Every structure is written in C-alpha cells, then in structure tokens.
From TrEMBL, chains A, B:
Protein name: prephenate dehydrogenase
Record key words, sorted: Amino-acid biosynthesis, Aromatic amino acid biosynthesis, NAD, Oxidoreductase, Tyrosine biosynthesis
GO biological process terms held by the UniProt record: tyrosine biosynthetic process
Organism lineage: Bacteria, Pseudomonadati, Pseudomonadota, Alphaproteobacteria, Hyphomicrobiales
Top EC group: oxidoreductase
Organism from which the protein derives: Methylosinus sporium
Protein's pathway: Amino-acid biosynthesis; L-tyrosine biosynthesis; (4-hydroxyphenyl)pyruvate from prephenate (NAD(+) route): step 1/1
SUPFAM superfamilies with a match to the protein in the record: 6-phosphogluconate dehydrogenase C-terminal domain-like, NAD(P)-binding Rossmann-fold domains
Amino acid sequence: MADARAPIFEKVALIGLGLIGSSIARGARAYGAATRIAASDASEQVCARVRELGIADETTADLAQTVTGADLVILCVPVGACGEVARVIAPHLSPGAILSDVGSVKGAIVAQVAPHVPASAHFIPAHPIAGTEYSGPDAGFATLFQNRWCILTPQDGFDGEAVRKLSAFWTRLGANVETMSATHHDLVLAVTSHLPHLIAYNIVGTAADLEEVTQSEVIKFSASGFRDFTRIAASDPTMWRDIFLNNKDAVLEMLGRFDEDLTALRRMIRTGDGDGLFALFTRTRAIRRSIIEQGQDTAAPDFGRSAPREE
Amino acid sequence: MADARAPIFEKVALIGLGLIGSSIARGARAYGAATRIAASDASEQVCARVRELGIADETTADLAQTVTGADLVILCVPVGACGEVARVIAPHLSPGAILSDVGSVKGAIVAQVAPHVPASAHFIPAHPIAGTEYSGPDAGFATLFQNRWCILTPQDGFDGEAVRKLSAFWTRLGANVETMSATHHDLVLAVTSHLPHLIAYNIVGTAADLEEVTQSEVIKFSASGFRDFTRIAASDPTMWRDIFLNNKDAVLEMLGRFDEDLTALRRMIRTGDGDGLFALFTRTRAIRRSIIEQGQDTAAPDFGRSAPREE
C-alpha cells in the first residue's frame, strides 16, 4: 500500500504565479503533492518575487524549460491568455503529461486550448473555487483550497487514470473534487459567481456616480450593506473582464432571469405589496441557513467584522 | 468637571428588545450610560427572556409603566410599528423627556411619530448603522455600536441641549455621531443599505428558482461570490418589508439608476467591450480601498472565512 504522503506528481509546472498559482505552489509543497515544483510567469518582476519567496524549486520566464519533463502542467493565467500559452508549450509537453488549468470558465478554455494539445497528453480542465480579492504571488497561501470545491471537466469521460491522479492532487491540497461537463460548469458558475460579481460591480459603480449623495458618504455609511458588495467588486479586473467575455451566453441568460425578478420586486414595492415582500425575504433566509449548514460560510454574525463580543 | 463615567440619563426606557434594543441595554449598562434601564416588549416570551438574561433593571409588557419617569425613551420596534407605540406612550412621557428611535428610515418615522409627541418632550429620530443578520434579545451584544455611525435627524436644528445629550449617549456606547436632515438620511441609506439589500434578496431569489441549476448546486458552490449576498438576504423579513414600504420613493429612484447602469454593462458584455469592462472594474476597486482605509471593513482577505493561513 502506497504511503499516503507519497508525492502524486514528480514535476508540477505552474504557469502564472498570481494568487492561485502561488497558492498551488505553497500547497503542493506543504502537503507533499509534488516532488519538484517549476514556476513560470510572463512578468520578470513576478519571477524575481517567486524566487525571493522560495516557493518553487525552479523559476524562469522560459515556458519550454518549465514544462519540459513535467507530468502535471497547470495554467494559472487569466482565461484570455490560456490559448496562447497552450500553443507555445504544446511541443514541449512530455508524453503522458496532464495539462490542466484553473480558469473560472470552462467552455471557452476548451475551445482555446484543446486544439493545441498533442494526442500524447491528457487535457483536463479544472476550476478550484477558492480565492480572495487580492492578487499576485504574495497573496497566495497553502490552505487556500481547504474545504473548497474543485470542479474537473474532463472531455473524455469522468474516469480514467489521469482524472484520478489530478483528483488526488487537488484532494491532497484539501479540496473536495467534483466532475461535470464544461457546459454545465459554465451555467452553475454563471449563477453562483459571475452574476453576483456583475451585480456587485454594477452597484458599486452606481453608488460612485450619484450627485445627491457624495462618494464620501457612501464610504462612511457602507457598513449598512454596501460594503458586502465592495469586496467582490474589488476582484482582479483582468480576470473578470476575461470571464465575462468568455462566458457571455450563460451570463446574459442569468442576467435576464435576474432582471425579470427585479421587475416583479420593483412592482411589489411600488404597489405596497407587503405580503409579497415578506414571503420573498423569508424564502431567501432559508437558503442562507443551508449554506451555513454545509460549511460554505460561518454563522458568525457580520463575519467577525464587528468589534469583539464582550458583555 | 463631571466624571467622564457619570451616567448620561437617569432612566432609559427601551421599547422592543430585539438585536438593537438588547444591544443598547447591554451597552448602556456596560459603559455606564444610564442609571437605570427599563425594558418593554410586546412579546411576553421576549420579556421573559430579557428577565432571564438580566440585561434590564425592570422588564414589563406595560408600555406606560416602562416610560414613566424616563428621561430617554428609545423605540426599537420595526419601522411600521413606531406610530402606534408613540400614540400609546405619548400621554406618559415625562416633561423634558427625549423620545428617539433606531429605525432605518427617517422621513416615514417623523410622519408617523411626530404628531403624537407632546410639546413638552423632545423628539430626535436616530439611526445607529450597525447590526448583524440575527434577530432577538439573545443576538445583541454590548459592543455592537463600537466604531459604527449613528445618524441623528433632529427636526428643530442640529444643536440644543437635547441633541447634545442624545449624542453623548451614543458616543458613550462607542458610536460616531453625525447629524443630517431626515430626507438626506433616507437618500443616503437608500443607496448604501436599502438598494444593496434589495439586490441581494433578488439574486438569492433568482438563484433559488432556476431549473437548469439545482438549489443544492447553488449552495455547494456558493463560495464563489453568491454567499456574500446571502448574508444580507438573511436579514429580518419584517424589518425589511417595513423599510421598503416606508422609503419607497428613494429606493425606486436608486433602483432606476442601478437599472440604467446595468443596461450599459449588459451591452458591454454583449458587444465584447473589454476596455469598458476593465475600466469599470478598476474604478470599483478604488472604492473598496477607501472603505478599508476608513475602518468600515477589514482588509483581511475573504473576511477570514478561509481556513487559517499557514505556510
């Protein structure tokens, strides 16, 4: 029986050392998921910082060198950059290597990356659902994926040795692995992630543009609800631009539903339909309870942002 | 020079012992803001619980008895109930007593309460901007108002002895006090609080009603953005029904602006305007920074809901 702590991959190559890439590097080392970690980033500044942090065994801007000999290569660059990186590294992938990514959309990634992947390699798109509103190699940490979901969307079916190995890697980093089709992934994420971000970006933009209420008042009194939106509206602009451009159909579909519901809600307010409002607000409260029960958030009031409790 | 810890009021009467009322009771005692605290709640069950908790010096369902002899009376009931409570207690208010409230809307409160207030009492509407998504006397805590804003909307001008005393009371409980007109308050809160709650209620409702994505998937993958909305969509349904019914005009006005901006954003996605999206997402990030700088939220990534950081 194999040692539970035996490395799952010999050489893991990470392309892009932002929040996610640097967290994978830290996690893979902390939990012994890889014998060796090679890192590459298009920015020389990021490469230098990764060397200073010492979170990889080799760090270079040279993509070919980074992926050579790797049995797992993970693209941790913005969605819009994956196709070009795949094109460059494809000739250097080892036979049998697994190529994966961490992008928040999967259909567009498949369309952009798959054409470049040689038949000798296994392409398994992945999406670890974890993150903070910070970016860059300093923002990462080893426990980022603990108790978070990682969705795999293998094109060739949901079993097979390559899928099992990649699944074992993410499990070692603390994630719970789920598999589904790329299309279903994009619909699920459109509602759980992309629409919420879109709405948050929009409301923060609206609040910033008002004439009757100053920006300083909005900031001052933000604790009354607004600030909950500003955290996700502070997420990386490049990453989110790419997500909306690459999951357009599902996002516009979900936005259409949101809009229909908002029209109904607006009518309830205008006509003074207190019972209708009360019924909706009671229903939404139950969903919050389920999220807490399933450990996807804490029940601590106000997320511990209030002053410490003491009587 | 008076002792800084001398009580500010002799007898503070609190009507309604939910999250806010019970936090005022605890805070007033913890920081010595009142010599005596009298509590009243329409629910006998709540009264019994308040007696068990021992957070007031006298607790009764009898409103007249509670306010008799009080130099400060605070209505901590839902906005829609303030008018009726004011009518009942008005004949029992002591000469010179200050009558205040904690409602999230101010124009409607003035319209409902002011007609009942005798000329011998001072009516100063107030709104402490603090709370959690929990309700009831057990949910309160003494430090709830620490470093939070409390807005006073006095009708007779922003100075005078009564305003100074009420201001001192809230300052003693740890709040920062600001004064403005009731009309301006309602506009500011419509954007910083009421619109965010409306949007959060709506998106949680939309997500619950989808056919293509199951409710269990929405809950499972909520960490990707959705859960940030569920906290505020779990707020007290009665309280929020009353807020929307009582600040209708300002809410519908802000919702109109939000809708215009959303139409523009939707067009950017449909036409693939990456530069437009990037510009908006960069602008909203700056507002988040200001909120953190002003201490209205912590910079801790993900509000500390991730597993603890360790390398």
